[in-house]
Specification:
seven-stranded antiparallel sheet; Immunoglobulin-like; disordered N terminus; 221 residues; 3 helices
């Protein structure tokens, strides 16, 4: 814009620059821009009037800023709505078993399941099971498997065929194709006790104080 000869009007409009209550940042900017434009038009140099093209360009930029803010507000409202819908959907999982990322295992009802997600086919998959002390108690050979989610059962026995006591166990998935390792994600079967929503989105609170994201559920039992 052209230089303003008398800025007293503009200064009275802007004041301290503090935003007025109830006004968004973009709305406040728009008000200030229009006030400045009016002040310039009142005090413009007759020999050097305002450039129409420049004014039009700046108004277009202002309109873009306001449009972006409106879009952000719409997206925030949509995100809040989706979060509420997810919360309602997740509530239907209470009391159900879900397969989520994790390597914990218990030789008990609904918890003797070993799950894994292969990124690509493997000609051999083995799972090592460890007790709470970290000692290897059993290795299971599941042979070749296709890419995707697989759910297998563990009978709760050690390598010698002896029943292991109930407790916390962990497992590790080892997959390979042609001698090369295949990335695999260990999956844990947990019982959903409740659901909650926070900064990380909708969370499933599992039995045993575990927690998993609603978006991470690979299978429902």
């Amino acid at each position: 814009m052209s230089t303003v000869q008398d800025t007293s009007n503009a200064a009275s409009v802007f004041g301290s620059g503090a935003a007025r209550p109830g006004k968004s940042a973009a709305g406040e900017t728009g008000d200030r821009f229009l006030a400045l434009l009016v002040a310039q038009m009142k005090n413009q140099d007759p020999l050097n009037p305002l450039d129409n093209a420049q004014v039009t360009s700046q108004m277009a930029q202002l309109s873009t800023v306001q449009g972006i803010e409106n879009m952000n507000q719409s997206l925030q409202a949509l995100a809040a709505s989706l979060g509420t819908n997810q919360m309602v959907q997740a509530a239907g999982l209470i009391g159900r078993g879900v397969l989520v990322p994790g390597d914990s295992l218990r030789p008990a009802e609904l918890q003797d399941v070993i799950g894994f997600d292969l990124s690509r086919p493997a000609d051999g998959v083995k799972v090592d099971i460890f007790n709470a002390s970290g000692a290897l108690v059993r290795t299971l050979d599941f042979g070749p498997r296709d890419a995707g989610v697989h759910v297998m059962a563990w009978d709760g026995l050690d390598a010698g065929g002896n029943a292991l006591p109930d407790g916390e166990y962990r497992f590790r998935v080892n997959a390979a194709q042609g001698g090369q390792g295949v990335p695999a994600t260990a999956l844990h079967l947990g019982l959903v006790n409740s659901v909650s929503q926070g900064s990380r989105g909708v969370q499933l609170n599992l039995a045993g104080n575990g927690q998993a994201s609603y978006a991470d559920v690979r299978q429902i039992f």
